[in-house]
Design goal:
The chain is mainly beta and about 475 residues long. The chain has two domains: about 120 residues, Sandwich (Dex49a from penicillium minioluteum complex, domain 1); about 325 residues, Single-stranded right-handed beta-helix, Pectin lyase-like (Pectate Lyase C-like), CATH 2.160.20.10. The chain has four helices and 44 strands. A hairpin with a 2-residue loop joins strand 8 and strand 9.
């Protein structure tokens, strides 16, 4: 009888149609005073697909390209279900100006309304670049997040509402929650503009919050930094040192002087859904030194230096690195590498350190310039590097870069000893678009000498503009080449 009732109910739902959830759009305000600068280049509106009323989305300036700083822009919102986006470029380039949406792997083709207006339909959250007339230095970034699942209020038990609170109160009260509400927040009485976060604490940046400070997790555990706010022009975005069990999720970072997320000798780190823009020298995305069990997922990094950098010993961190995954990210280095692995290590230890078990998977690389390797394993300072896998990587927008760069090297600028060896590097399902493939320079496989060398690398389904990668044609083997 129960089976019959279930079957009858299933049949009725199939015939009448099961009600679907209504599409939703959530837009956060931008502080009018002392907040990020609003861009005058674009107007952006969004609405649930099929509805008539448009909702304006604030468009914020983001500086890019450190060699000659340019003003790009981004618009950000949360969405559930399909949405339509209308974009007006106020300084339109003229008639028949082509507009492209990248990553091209998303297959989104804009509908041209007139010389200055296009529309898009998004079926799911995406991080995209909309480029009018091929302009990648003044483009519009669309940051369409999933709906924020976790929300907090300042009235929760053991919470601190940051508005008007001195930084030292965090340690006096040992809060469970540090709450940054809508508006601009500067730490009081801290000339270094830093906020130290204790163990067992959630830091919540509410939609519309702007924090002008770096967030430091040092010798702590079970820390969560989440929300939809902006960390604006910090020295560094989030520092995670000698810590474990740290989550950074959903935040947008504007122009850190150095790294967006900086990890040192820490374990069990998750970085998910963050967005970052930078235009300063050495302003990397996510840099990790001697870290283990790290997951980086669905991030958008447009940086003026390396997007992802993985090292062994550097500064105050020791012990090698292992078990690191980067998945589903958009990587856009205006300068340097999308991924750079292994440059730094413990040169004073004759045995060196080991960096191993790294997976870079299902990522889009949107830029490559100046002969840098898009996917680089540069082994210095007695390092041993093994079992690094690049899988399902899509590259476009390349200008005179190498697809990959495998080196055991000694760089007078960065090293005090050559690396030991590189072994078992795997490249599978790698594609480069046709225009970029024509501009690639040969990939490098470089040994320092016969004792310090690249031992094995493997290619499977690596495609350059429609043809298979040919190691004889598309790569060169070198020996004794010095690094920069």
């Amino acid at each position: 009888m129960v089976k019959f009732v279930f079957y009858l109910l299933f049949t009725v739902l199939a015939l009448t149609g099961c009600p679907t959830a209504r599409a939703q759009v959530f837009v956060a305000p931008v502080p009018e005073k002392d907040g990020p600068q609003v861009s005058e280049f674009y107007r952006v509106e969004v609405r649930p697909a099929g509805e008539r009323a448009w909702q304006a989305v604030p468009v914020i300036r983001c500086d890019v390209n450190t060699r000659r700083v340019q003003q790009a822009a981004f618009a950000e919102w949360d969405m559930e279900g399909a949405v339509e986006v209308r974009i007006v470029r106020r300084n339109a380039l003229g008639r028949h100006c082509p507009t492209v949406v990248r990553p091209s792997s998303r297959g989104i083709v804009p509908k041209v309304i007139d010389d200055s207006t296009v529309m898009l339909r998004l079926e799911r959250p995406e991080f995209l670049s909309v480029e009018f007339g091929g302009d990648r230095l003044h483009n519009l970034h669309l940051l369409a997040n999933p709906v924020l699942a976790e929300r907090h209020t300042p009235s929760e038990p053991q919470s601190i509402d940051w508005q008007g609170v001195a930084a030292q109160d965090v340690f006096v009260r040992h809060p469970r929650l540090i709450y940054f509400g809508p508006g601009v927040h500067r730490p009081k009485d801290l000339p270094s503009a830093e906020i130290r976060i204790p163990s067992n604490c959630t830091v919540y940046l509410a939609p519309g919050a702007v924090v002008k400070a770096r967030l430091i997790v040092d010798h702590a555990e079970n820390v969560r930094i989440v929300g939809r706010g902006i960390v604006d022009h910090p020295l560094r975005g989030v520092e995670i040192t000698h810590s474990r069990g740290v989550l950074v999720e959903g935040i947008t970072f504007l122009n850190p002087a150095h790294y967006t997320v900086y990890g040192g000798e820490s374990t069990d780190i998750t970085v998910r859904g963050i967005k970052s823009f930078s235009s300063r020298p050495w302003s990397d995305g996510i840099d990790l030194m001697c870290c283990r069990r790290v997951r980086v997922e669905r991030c958008f990094l447009r940086t003026s230096d390396d997007c992802i950098a993985l090292y062994c010993h550097r500064w105050w961190f020791w012990g090698g690195a292992e078990d690191i995954e980067v998945r589903g990210c958009v990587l856009w280095p205006d300068v340097a590498h999308s991924v750079n692995i292994g440059s730094h290590g413990d040169d004073r230890n004759p045995e060196g350190e080991t960096l191993r078990d790294v997976l870079i998977k299902d990522c889009d690389v949107l830029q490559g310039i100046d002969g840098h390797g898009l996917l680089a394993v540069n082994c210095g300072d007695n390092n041993h590097i093994s079992n690094v896998r690049f899988d399902n990587i899509r590259c476009e927008g390349v200008s005179e870069a190498r697809l990959f760069d495998l080196r055991v090297l000694f760089s007078p600028k960065y090293n005090r000893a050559p690396g030991c060896c590189v072994d078992s590097i795997f490249f599978s399902r790698i594609t480069v678009d046709g225009a970029s493939a024509a501009r690639l320079t040969p990939s490098h496989v470089t040994d320092f000498d016969s004792l310090h060398s690249v031992r094995r690398y493997f290619l499977s389904d690596v495609n350059l503009g429609g043809r298979p990668f040919d190691p004889e044609r598309d790569a060169v083997r070198l020996q004794g080449e010095k690094g920069e």
